[in-house]
Write a structure and sequence with these properties.
8-stranded antiparallel beta barrel; 9 strands
């Protein structure tokens, strides 16, 4: 009789667990802004351009656990870029990483950017240091016409990709 009662209790608890919905807190979104100082370099490390006091944002971040996910990567840029896609995340430890692809407004070529650095969110401000590496896709003639200092990427499955430069940012 004790075995039957125990079995009925176990089956009842299992049924409750299966039928009961899991309740979790809804994701939270915050909006951040930041100002950038930056230096852009050609692939060989010589300075291409630099600027200071460039206002950016607003950009929405979705908080999941200890991480922040950029909701719309287009908000990361202060110019609307055609066909932009990608993903960016800030870990709970402040590690920033991401990738984007879009069509260049200047050259019309496909661009791929890889981002990484160390940032933090201070209230509603993004702060820290990060690097953006940019690559263009096309024939040597097309790429070198718009980005004459570019160098071809020498790795498997990289045919047509050219490293056009990198930018180091300070966000505050």
């Amino acid at each position: 009789m004790k075995k039957v009662a125990f079995l009925i209790i176990c089956v009842s608890l299992l049924a409750v667990l299966i039928v009961s919905p899991v309740t979790a807190a809804p994701p939270t979104t915050i909006t951040v802004t930041w100002t950038e100082d930056a230096t852009r370099y050609y692939p060989d490390g010589t300075v291409w351009a630099s600027w200071t006091g460039d206002a950016n944002g607003p950009m929405d971040l979705l908080i999941t656990g200890n991480a922040y996910h950029v909701v719309d990567v287009g908000e990361f840029y202060n110019t609307t870029l055609p066909d932009i896609e990608g993903s960016m995340i800030i870990s709970g430890a402040g590690k920033f990483s991401g990738h984007t692809t879009y069509t260049s407004l200047a050259s019309g070529l496909p661009i791929r950017e890889l981002l990484n650095g160390d940032v933090m969110i201070d209230g509603s401000t993004l702060e820290g240091l990060y690097t953006q590496r940019a690559y263009a896709f096309g024939s040597a003639e097309d790429v070198l016409t718009s980005y004459p200092n570019s160098v071809p990427v020498k790795s498997e499955n990289a045919d047509g990709w050219w490293f056009i430069g990198y930018t180091e940012y300070t966000a505050y």
